[in-house]
Amino acid sequence: MYPALAVLQAIKDSADVLWIGGEGGMEAQLVSRSGIPFRTIPAAGVHGIGLRTLPGNLWQLSRGVFASRRILREFDPDVLFFTGGYVAVPMALAGWKVPSLLYVPDIEPGLALNTLARFADKIAVTADDSLQYFTRPNTLP
């Protein structure tokens, strides 16, 4: 199970939650079966891809930012909860004024988690070894 899904299942009875995933993402069926509302946005990775693919992926990310803005206007969240992945970047850019928590489930964060850390108000880590990758005082063990 995704760690984020476990968190949302724990709080869904006391808070309104909405899971945002990538279009065609693998989590759609899993999240929908859990009873958590689910929406998608366009997103694509930019690390480790060829130069021919990069412009299209950057276009997808920009489309994702605009789709995220629409969702944020409709849902009006009190907080954003990120667990990483390139699909979270457009939402973080669109919701930079909304308080956010970044949960780092891996010991060594990838490019998306490092990017999201710049926007996060608080960062929670699973392993103390992860603390070395985040120098900001908002990191919680």
Please characterize this protein's 3D structure.
This protein is of the alpha/beta class and 141 residues long. The chain has helices at 3-11, 28-33, 54-75, 88-94, 111-117, and strands at residues 19-22, 38-41, 80-82, 100-104, 122-125, 139-140. A 4-stranded parallel sheet has the order 3-4-5-6, with helices on one face. Strand 1, helix 2 (28-33) and strand 2 (38-41) form a beta-alpha-beta unit. Helix 3 packs across helix 4 (88-94). The longest helix has 22 residues, at 54-75. The radius of gyration is 15 Å and the shape is globular. It starts with a helix and ends with a strand. The relative contact order is 0.13.
Give the tags:
single chain; 141 residues; alpha/beta; 5 helices; globular
Indicate the topology.
Elements: H1 3-11, E1 19-22, H2 28-33, E2 38-41, H3 54-75, E3 80-82, H4 88-94, E4 100-104, H5 111-117, E5 122-125, E6 139-140
Parallel strand pairs: 1-2, 3-4, 4-5, 5-6
Helix pairs in contact: 3-4
The unreliable regions are none
What share of residues are in beta strands? 15-25%
Number of strands: 6
Order of helices and strands: HEHEHEHEHEE
What does the largest sheet look like?
A: 4 strands, parallel
Radius of gyration: 15 Å
Report, as a whole number of angstroms, the end-to-end distance: 21 Å
Question: What's the helix count?
Answer: 5
> Structural class from helices and strands?
alpha/beta
Query: Strand order, biggest sheet?
Result: 3-4-5-6
Whole-number average pLDDT?
85
C-alpha geometry: globular
- Fraction of residues in helices? 25-40%
